[in-house]
Amino acid sequence: MEILWVLMAVVLLAFVLLPYLRRRRGGIEQVPPGHPDAADPADYGFVREEELDIRMPGPDQDLLDVLDLVQRTGDYKAAQQLLAGTETEGELRWQRVQAFAGAAALELQQRPGGVGEIPGGQWLRVWRAEQPKDAGGAAVHAEFLVQQAWRTSTPGTDDFRIIMEEARSALSDAALLAPGDPVPYIVELSVARGLHYSREEFEQLWLKILDRAPEHMGAHLAALHYWCEKWHGSRELSYRFAEAAAARAPRGSLLAAMPLFAVFEHLPEVNLVSGFYQSEVVTKAIHGALHAVHTARPDDPMLAHVRHLLVFFLVRAERWAEAMDQLIHVDGHVGALPWTLSPDPAAEFAVYRALAVAGYEANGGSPATLPH
Fold it and tell me: Which sign, positive or negative, has the C-alpha torsion 232, 169, 172, 109?
């Protein structure tokens, strides 16, 4: 009888641990090379893993050219000109502010500076010193401080609070320089999360954004974090926020994909439910995101974000052909959820891409049958 109980315990332990080992959030076991189910993504013209661009979710050649110039010369003026010529209310300005701030933060991390050495990201400091009234530079500096807080400090510590308070002050300056620009307020959403704004304070901030850019997808994604269970809300509140955004989304708006992001934010760490990714909640969210993708403008800067998350869910749901359809639109760039949560975004994306190709071919697909 004791042996029977031991065997039952072993079986139960395996039942609990195997899904965790094989189906961790953001990770799927990769098919080993030479396995009968293995397939070659290169047959579909996909970019080699080592050539995947982890900086952005999709192409923005103007931004890449300017970043290269700024980092080579240390002269901020090209960045200033690009932001000055970018539409204030659109998604692109917010993404470019993030990109410039992220580049400066990464440079500083790689070259912190020492005695007699110039620290990385010096061009941003010069930008702010020489152009204190430039709204673009002020916004980039504020976003830089926010990223520094999350990168270098732990939420709840004095260091984290000090940097976030400095960021909040910088955001006030940026907002005064460009009263109609929603970007400083969108950046403040991250400050609100880190400094534990009350719900009343957060909703007042959110109203300022809605007054300036009511359909801003990036702003909605940033706000969703606040309402999530792991921060200051709950699963119910985050779903309610996402579904309300989707319900009021006009045709062609990617806000219809918001419920899929809410589902992703609340994925179980250990999935013991068979067919979770084919469940009604997940399926409904996938269909909403697919509808948003099919009706969105091809040049919508947030389109790649939605496509990347769809790849994750469609692979998990074993909807191989649909996953391949998304891959042909985003392959080459992996700077988006869920890949950016991995220490190696390119490798994580490559695993899902290989699984999509293998599943597609196992069901009769081939490069010749994949529409482009």
Answer: negative
Q: What angle do CA 64, 306, 38 make, to 5 degrees?
A: 90
pLDDT score of 24: 42
State the SS3 of 121-187: CHHHHHHHHHCCCCHHHHHHHHHHHHHHHHHHCCCCCHHHHHHHHHHHHHHHHHHHHCCCCCHHHHH
Alpha carbon distance 239, 199 (integer Å): 16
Is residue 211 within 8 Å of residue 220, measured between CB atoms? no
Confidence of residue 73 (pLDDT cuts 50, 70, 90): very high
Q: What is the pLDDT of residues 120-151, one digit of tens each?
A: 899 999 999 999 999 999 999 999 999 999 99
Distances (CA, A) of 34 to 37, 38, 347: 8, 6, 18
Handedness of CA 290, 295, 298, 302 (dihedral sign): negative
The DSSP symbol for 53 reads B
Residues 6+ apart with CB under 8 A from 340: 54, 334
With residue 105 as reference, give the H or E element that holds it: helix 91-110
* C-alpha dihedral (175, 180, 182, 188), degrees to nearest 10: 20
DSSP 299-313: T-TTHHHHHHHHHHH
End-to-end CA distance of the chain: 62
Structure tokens at 202: 């957060």
Measured CA angle at 338 (ends 298, 245), to 5 deg: 60
- Residue 72: how many other CB atoms lie within 10 Å: 8
Q: What tens digit of pLDDT does each residue of 154-185 get?
A: 999 999 999 999 999 999 999 999 999 999 99
* Cβ-based neighbours of 234, under 8 Å, separated by 6 or more: 227
Residue 216 makes CB contacts below 8 A (sequence gap 6+) with 89, 91, 94, 182, 186, 209
Distance between CA atoms of residues 360 and 46, nearest Å: 15
d(CA 324, CA 326): 5
